[in-house]
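Re: the request from the purification team.
They wanted to know what the chain is likely to look like in 3D before they choose a buffer screen. I agreed to run a prediction and write the result into the notebook, where they can find it.
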Amino acid sequence: MFRIRMHTALAAVCHFSTEAATMKLLATMKSEEIAKPKTIVKPNTSDGNSTPSGRDTLGQRLLSLIYAKRSAVITIQKWRDEGHTVRKYELNRIVRELRKLKRYKHALEICEWMTKQHDIKLLEGDYAVHLDLIAKIRGLASAEKFFEDLPDKMKGRPTCTALLHTYVQNKESEKAEALMEKMSDCGFLKHALPYNHMLSLYISNEQLEKVPGIIQELKKNTSPDVVTYNLWLNVCASQNDVETAEKVLLEMKKAKIDPDWVTYSSLTNLYIKKGLLDKAATTLKEMEKKTSRKARAAYSSLISLHTNMRDKDGVHRVGKKLKSIFPKMNDAEYTCMISSLVKLGEFEEAENLYSEWTSVSPTGDSRVSNILLSAYINKSEMEMAEKFYNQMVERGITPSYTTWELLTWGYLKQKQTEKVLDSFEKAVGSVKKWNPDEKLAREVYKNLEEQGNIEGAEKVLVILQKAGHVSTEMYNRLLRVYAKAGKMPLIVAERMKKDKVELDEETHRLIQETSKMCVSEVSSKFL
């Protein structure tokens, strides 16, 4: 059980899945529709008021507002007060760059400033960008209100598509479907993008039974694009449907749509899962032909797929190619490469690459460190794991929930109860809102029950109470610890009522069983 848990934790941080690649591609569709970026404003770019490198520009000033509390509006107004002209196309390019950098607040401030300028004529696409930013900063309800307040002539395809994307992001199936009907009535479904959004929604909501219908409807009104086919292949991969996937690829080629690296990544992933390694090797070669400097994420996907095929040479070859093209690897690439080396048993190389990461990356991202920590724990090397953890802290890397979770599992395996309780408490306390890990809580209680450790069991209940996640099952596990220790807990039924937890048959049985035992002094400490 523990080894499976560790493998899952490792896989979660290392694998650049086909699904993730597809979702990443889909995330860019919206900006292609409503923003259509042609160029990007950089501090050194000359355009309009911009001047050559080293000189002052509006773009430089706005992009330098790193802290969200600073005002883009004040910056623009000051620029205008200094006698400069503020041009719409320049601001639009700055907004696109800010969105790319995920600095949505300043981008929204610029959009809102433009709506108040009588000399700036805004188009549907401008309002679509504005709506998207409102959804990101203020939420769905505010985005809907913005759309409702738009003039009717601005409620066209771009703004409707932006609202549809917002519904998809919030997994609002009914609202998205209703909007699609209205868009159909208005003749706004002449492009693949809205249908691709719906495919994404059905995939994320696991409503795969709706996928064939939306594809059929798409084909009636327009033609699928490469994203459509990639999403379709993603569904085939999730269903292990090789036959349909190969038909999709054939249809794609007949439509003269050039497959991209995501296409072949999906197919390779499917072939590997089905054990069709010869076919996987063929599609992997095709995928590699599609890689380029512009498709940086493809290299991590290639590394993961070579890893899944146990192809060490392929991993090293693609890793070297990645470094030659991008001398400065990012955290995600280090994560992928280190994980692959660990999975392939190249542990010394993984440690060396981790040392390289610590020397060049300023982020201190614990997700990278957790890969090696997980590996040490999985190898039952808890002394080494503790030493590695201490080195993490010394290097200024802040432990995450996963860090403490991994240590908890490791200490459970070693039956080091005090350290189990300490790590579990720190894990739960490291996040604002704990998403209950029932399996971990059960294992902690199981360990305490084996020892009849009443005090430890009560401490765990306190931890769960603080996190707001006590349940009938957890109280029953507490009672089982008391039963194992041959002790009677005090006023359990009253405590459960206070925590608004119901008693079930097992609860009543355990209370009855323990009522015949001696009262535990420990119980009174936690009342």
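For the purification team: The two ends are 35 Å apart (CA to CA).
Please add any questions underneath this entry.
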